[in-house]
Backbone:
RNA sequence: GCCGGGAUGGCGGAAUUGGCAGACGCGCUGGACUUAGGAUCCAGUGCCCUAAAGGCGUGCAGGUUCAAGUCCUGUUCCCGGCACCA
């Protein structure tokens, strides 16, 4: 640093974030495995706070810094409040970018990944995040992924993992299959500009639908989750109650069209059947009818295009009559069978009964093609001839045979029961949620522990043979087939059943497996006998799961639904007791710059390393909490970071340049010693403690916490009482300085530790008690009461805080300005809100 | 179309229970100190009005109330999610 010549000797001891942070960073490094370790047999209450683990892309971005600053502040606050805190970190380190890096710069995925981890861990440490590194989890290492394989065997045993051939999502850029959850608006979640194709492939699936009902129902319990996330999951699961009804195909007694409907009560109004173009029966119809075939193929192409454009709902409805008829099992009526472009094969049964009188889409379609529109529902009261389509539920049946007169809701139940009794249908529930497509045709993932034997078919790897190690030195290309298939030493194995030759599964697991249960591993990260010890997991998860989980909303569906599924499975295995993994979830907003998401192409990326180098970790962290409430988007402004750095410099001057050291003062002082100025500061201090404590309790508006600290400092700076050398004044200054540092600790640990030391304190700051506020001292003695006349602010009067209504009114009416205003007018009413305001209504 | 969130000075935001709108910070203006200032300190800063006085002001239009950013009705725009879901 440049030599500064200054008259003021204090100038030589300026706030130098780099020097302070380097000093404490060095000290903390030396005890990295013990400093923030959770206690093993603690009598304290437990608190598990967790931030979503990062993908090791190479470097942290500001979104990470924000995420971890929130979690770290909370962890430190809970430590100070006497909790046994678990605050771990790990790496979601399988995934495609490692393979892409391998291709583009010829570095093996493992090496690339581990190097990135080392760099990001360095950044986290430099930022001063308090993680228990002894529990670090790295998902791409065999000591972790072997348990993925173990879980897979358990899922297979229970019938929750299965293999089937079906249409699956395929990303051409990733050259792999994707789960439904990984398709966003028809495109790949990693390649927003790449349309996902449909391919017919044989794949492993996990039966997430087994828990569909529970996954939906338990959302009600998650009142510590943002409503937004619960709604998104509800939509995703998409439960709908209805009935399946079989329509026989006329003239082909063994051919049946099963339709799904939520409105079986309208079935007497069904005047056609509509099939999705991909419906299996359609193939039979088109086999001998080239013209029909051409039209159907056109519809399939049209649907695909619309899906790719993301406006499937916008295409114009059209269809083609197949010339066949189906028989309505309720009344024996023959109705025509059509193929229509608005019927989706992947929802329900891919076939509907069309009731134009009571469905908007069917109505539009029937109008276009002149299909009969037959009303079978009328309102409960009043005019039966209302406008069609009449889609409301609140009606009763007409033209419906023996069900005439029933209310819709009643009819839905009775008619489903009738179908079941007569063997042509039943009440049923459909879900939008599909089973989890689980196989990936990629290298950098957990090998699926399965074998294919010519004699025994699909054979699981024996538990004792786990882990199936992912080989190194694999030739990776993004063309055709799983890279592992090109490694004979890997592929060629022995069948554990017959001892004959067997071929290994060469697909790997979706990386979302890794994050589905990693937070349980943190409770027992070094266990090599089991994924974790049940007792340890139950201690940290309790009945309701992780106390506080913090991350981006982009995982509202993906990670958060898979991990809920995994938890339910582990509970049913008897490994854990909790039904849900996370009690409270917080989704922080994005970090943006100049109104846009940070991206290389826009050139608006702010690098954490750069911020740390320019302003220090403390400033970068505090700014990321100060600039906006944590749940909202944060528009990054370097000048704002500077402002925070200025504030910290003033804090430093207030304490480090004028400290009252431990042992140099008497701890006792009485408020009466302080005088009005000191009392005012004391009041402000207790109000500040109150505000920040409240913010931590759940509101989490750390921006106002920081503002409160700034206000307190503004009050203190330049106050004459802090230059006094008298006993009580010294004791008071000592108290203010200590409480200030304690409140800084969650937000700016480096500066807080430095100042704590400057104050001569020996106790560990991390576990020093959070200051308490005294409501009596926080209370104002005198307050300004706004005086309104007819609701408009006209004056202010100063009264004692406890002033009665009468006193306030007396003072207000005696006020010169008020007197002049109400002169000659009639007072109609006076409203006095004690300690708040007075409003005089005059005419 | 359905669901969730939002709109407050030049900017980020505050107002926790219907009770002084604009805390705190940025930026800007003026001043002090200084060889210098992109350091520090002091003062000012919603808009209109020469100042005082006064008036206006929380997307828009109404309403309830002594009193509305906050409650009610309607409406516009922005962000996010879902979507021919039968």
Residues:
């Amino acid at each position: 640093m440049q030599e500064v010549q200054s008259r003021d000797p204090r100038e030589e001891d300026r706030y130098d974030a780099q020097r302070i942070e380097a000093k404490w960073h060095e000290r903390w490094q030396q005890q990295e495995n013990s400093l923030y370790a959770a206690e093993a047999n603690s009598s304290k209450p437990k608190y598990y706070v967790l931030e979503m683990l990062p993908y090791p892309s190479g470097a942290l971005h500001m979104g990470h810094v924000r995420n971890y600053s929130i979690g770290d502040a909370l962890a430190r606050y809970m430590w100070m409040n006497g909790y046994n805190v678990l605050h771990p970190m790990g790496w979601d380190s399988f995934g495609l970018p490692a393979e892409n890096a391998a291709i583009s710069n010829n570095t093996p995925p493992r090496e690339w990944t581990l190097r990135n981890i080392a760099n990001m861990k360095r950044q986290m440490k430099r930022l001063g995040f308090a993680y228990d590194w002894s529990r670090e989890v790295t998902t791409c290492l065999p000591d972790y992924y072997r348990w993925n394989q173990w879980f897979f065997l358990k899922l297979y045993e229970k019938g929750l993992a299965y293999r089937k051939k079906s249409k699956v999502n395929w990303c051409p850029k990733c050259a792999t299959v994707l789960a439904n959850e990984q398709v966003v608006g028809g495109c790949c979640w990693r390649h927003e500009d790449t349309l996902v194709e449909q391919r017919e492939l044989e794949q492993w699936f996990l039966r997430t639908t087994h828990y569909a009902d529970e996954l939906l129902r338990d959302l009600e319990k998650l009142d510590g989750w943002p409503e937004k996330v619960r709604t998104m999951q509800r939509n995703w699961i998409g439960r709908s109650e209805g009935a399946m009804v079989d329509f026989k195909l006329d003239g082909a007694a063994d051919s049946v069209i099963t339709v799904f409907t939520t409105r079986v009560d309208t079935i007497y109004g069904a005047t056609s059947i509509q099939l999705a173009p991909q419906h299996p029966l359609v193939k039979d119809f088109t086999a001998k009818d080239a013209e029909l075939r051409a039209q159907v193929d056109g519809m399939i192409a049209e649907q695909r295009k619309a899906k790719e454009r993301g406006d499937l709902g916008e295409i114009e409805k059209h269809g083609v009559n197949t010339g066949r008829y189906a028989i309505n099992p309720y009344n024996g009526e023959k109705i025509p069978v059509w193929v229509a472009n608005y019927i989706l094969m992947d929802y329900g049964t891919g076939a509907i009964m069309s009731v134009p009188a009571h469905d908007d889409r069917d109505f539009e379609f029937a109008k276009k093609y002149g299909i009969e529109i037959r009303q079978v529902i009328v309102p409960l009261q009043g005019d039966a001839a209302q406008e069609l389509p009449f889609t409301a539920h609140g009606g009763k049946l007409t033209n419906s045979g023996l069900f005439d007169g029933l209310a819709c809701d009643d009819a839905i139940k009775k008619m489903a029961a009738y179908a079941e009794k007569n063997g042509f249908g039943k009440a049923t529930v459909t879900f939008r949620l599909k089973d989890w497509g689980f196989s990936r045709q990629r290298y950098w993932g957990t090998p699926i522990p399965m074998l294919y034997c010519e004699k025994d078919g699909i054979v699981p790897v024996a538990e004792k043979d786990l882990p199936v190690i992912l080989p190194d030195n694999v030739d990776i290309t993004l063309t055709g087939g799983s890279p592992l298939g090109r490694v004979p030493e890997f592929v060629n194995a022995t069948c554990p059943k017959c001892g004959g030759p067997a071929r290994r599964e060469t697909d790997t697991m979706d990386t979302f497996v890794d994050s589905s249960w990693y937070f349980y591993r943190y409770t027992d990260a070094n266990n090599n006998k089991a994924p974790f010890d049940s007792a340890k997991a139950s201690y940290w998860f309790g009945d309701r799961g992780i106390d506080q989980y913090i991350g981006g909303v982009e995982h509202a569906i993906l990670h958060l639904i898979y991990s809920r599924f995994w938890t339910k499975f582990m509970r049913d295995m008897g490994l854990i007791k909790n039904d849900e993994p996370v009690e409270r979830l917080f989704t922080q907003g994005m970090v943006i710059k100049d109104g846009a998401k940070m991206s290389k192409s826009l050139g608006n990326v702010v690098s954490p390393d750069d911020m740390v180098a320019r302003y220090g970790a403390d400033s970068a962290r505090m700014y990321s909490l100060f600039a906006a409430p944590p749940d909202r988007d944060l528009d990054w402004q370097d000048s704002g970071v500077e402002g925070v750095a200025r504030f910290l410099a003033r804090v430093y001057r207030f304490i480090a340049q004028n400290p009252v050291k431990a042992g140099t003062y008497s701890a006792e002082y009485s408020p009466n010693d302080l005088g009005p100025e000191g009392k005012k500061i004391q009041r402000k201090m207790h109000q500040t403690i109150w505000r920040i404590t409240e913010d931590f309790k759940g509101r989490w508006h750390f921006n106002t916490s920081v503002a409160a600290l700034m206000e307190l400092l503004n009050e203190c700076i330049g106050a004459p009482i802090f230059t006094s050398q008298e006993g009580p004044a010294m004791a008071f200054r000592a108290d203010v300085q200590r409480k200030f540092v304690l409140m800084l600790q969650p937000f700016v640990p480096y500066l807080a530790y430095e100042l704590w030391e400057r104050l001569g304190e020996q106790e560990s700051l991390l576990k020093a008690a959070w200051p308490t506020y005294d409501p009596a001292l926080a209370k104002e003695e005198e307050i300004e009461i706004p005086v309104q006349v007819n609701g408009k602010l006209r004056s202010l009067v100063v009264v004692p805080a406890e002033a009665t209504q009468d006193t306030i009114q007396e003072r207000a009416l005696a006020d010169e300005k008020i007197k002049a205003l109400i002169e000659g007018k009639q007072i109609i009413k006076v409203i006095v809100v004690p300690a708040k305001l007075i409003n005089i209504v005059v005419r």
